[in-house]
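dude i think i finally got it to work??
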Amino acid sequence: MTAFASPRGAWRAFILALAFAAGTAQGSLLFGAVGLANDQYARPVADTEIASTAVLADCRGFVGTIARIVLLDGSIRCNEAFPYGFASPISTSVYYPADIAASDAKLPVITFVGGILSNAGNYHELMKLWASHDFIVVISSDFINSFPLMHALGILEVAKLDRDPASALHGRADFSRTLVAGHSAGGQATLQSASLSAQALQLIEPRLKLVGALPIEPGPLAIGSTVKTPTLLLTGLADVVVPPLSWPILWQGPLIRDVPAWGATATTATHFSPLRQIEHNEFAGISVAWVLYQGKNDAQARDYFVGRYYKLASDIQFNDPLRLLRPSRNKLAAAL
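look at this
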C-alpha cells in the first residue's frame, strides 16, 4: 500500500490508476465467456430469486462515473460507501436465495473481498450468480481490501444474521462449509485468510471451517507456502495489473504444497473481467464449479478438478492456442 504525501496526491494517484486501467479494460467486452464451465454454469439457476442486504444504484458520483468510463460499462453498480458516496468506506452486503426461510436446510457460506479502489456493488452480478446455487454470499469492503480483516468482517456479519431470530438467515448458515474468495487485493487477502490456523479462524467464529479458497488475479502480498485450504488460483492472460507470469507463478500457486491446489489462466480475461456482466466474465463458470465442488461436493462440478481427464484441463477458456499457460494442479490435487 502506497503512502501519499497529501490527500491531493492520493486522489491524483487514484485517477492515474484508473486512467492506466482504461487501456486494459476493453478486452473482456470483445469476447464472450466460452468453454465447458461457462457453458454449464455461467448463468443464474433458473427461477431462483435472490435477496440481498445491498443497497445499490448506478455509479453516478465522481469516482463512480470515472469507473463507468474506464470500464466502458454503464451497467456497473455501486453502493454509497466512500469515496463512491458519502457513507462509511467500510461496508458488508449479504446475498442469499429469497426462499431460504422455506426450508430448514443450512447453506454453505462464501465470503468475498474485491479489489483495491473497488466498490462492493461492482461485483453484484457475480455475487448473485453464486447465491443462486444455494450459497449465502457476503461481500465486504473497506476500499483497501488487502488483508484478512474484511473476510473476518464478512463472517461476523453472517454470524450476526444467523443468530438473529428476526433475520431470514436465522439458523441457516453452515460455517463448517465456508469458502474465502477475492479479486486482486481481495485475492491476496484470500490467500492470507486461507493461511490462518484453525485456532485463529475459531476466534472469528467458533463454527468456522474453511473448505476452499478462490483467489482471482491476486495481489502480490501473499505466498503460497503458508496456505492451508484447498485453492483454485485464477489469472487472466490479458491482465497487465496482475500479469499471470509474475507473482502468481513465482511465489503463490506453485508453492501451495500442503493442500490440493489448481491454477488456470483465462485466455481473454483482463483485470476487470470479474466486474463484468456474467456473459463477459471468463471466470464465472469455473468459479461456480469450484464453489459447488468444495462447498457441496457436487459430482458434476468435481469432474472439473478430479480425475485423470479433469475437465478444467481441456476447457478452451483456459487453454491458449500456444499452450503457454495450461491449467495445472499440484501432486495432492492430482492424487484425488
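The chain has one domain: 31-57+89-334.
im so relieved honestly
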